[in-house]
Amino acid sequence: MLRRAVLAILALGFQLSAQSETPKPIRVLFIGNSYTYYNNLPRLVEVISESQGGGPRIVSESSLSGGKTLKWHWEKAEAIELIRKGGWDYVVLQEYSTLGKVPAPGAEPEINDPAMYFEYAEKFHEEIAKAGAKTVLYATWARYGFPEQQRRLDVAFTRFALKSGASIVPAGLAWTVTRIEFPAIALHSPDRSHPTMAGSYLNALVFYQSLTGRKAANPPSVIAGPKQPGDAAEVTLVNLAWSDANALNQIAQRVVAQEPLRPVQ
Fold this sequence. Notes:
Elements lengths: L1 H20 L4 E7 L1 H4 L3 H10 L7 E7 L5 H7 L1 H8 L4 E4 L21 H16 L3 E5 L10 H16 L2 E3 L1 H11 L15 H16 L9 E5 L7 E6 L2 H17 L7
Parallel strand pairs: 1-2, 1-3, 3-4, 4-5
Antiparallel strand pairs: 6-7
Helix pairs in contact: 3-9, 8-10, 9-10
């Protein structure tokens, strides 16, 4: 009887120890448009986090609508209600890809004056701070054929981050490095704007490593899930050759390590 009691106490102790060592999940709210919901970026980030033994899981909710700006999200107020619900560690802000200026059909994209982006990013940043969370800027990429525009985008993201204390997930920088070092890996879809599976996978790796401060070890290169956040049916979100997935992971690690404004724990 005594031996059984001792073994039961030891077993309970091991269980409590294991529970205490389980990292607290990181709760993330994504606010943005199709650059976030294409290939269900939030789900990719979650699956990568689930694949990493001993690391924190990332769980997310989203307020997303195609072709919309932060100004639109602010005026609609759904995203604000989600922020005020609280419980977030990070709130990700993704502006329209040309800083809020929607190009006319067939016209060349132009980067907008960042004033509108700054205005509404600041409004959201204040609400995020009140909710006890940290603001994260999704630093997106230039459209295909306009690599020179990446600098203007990055300058705007960096200016706001330095002014506000927000952090940056440097996806655009990771795309630039990939374009130079692995030009055969297509990141842009045929529409020259949205991400391919490889583009979304690279973004997810940059998010995971930025939000956790951990390198992703052998993350899955095939991932299934709902096509968009909130959908019911599952599809293949990512299906990459291991060599491509590994190359993108190495780039994500290097870029995040070199980004001084990243939100490392």
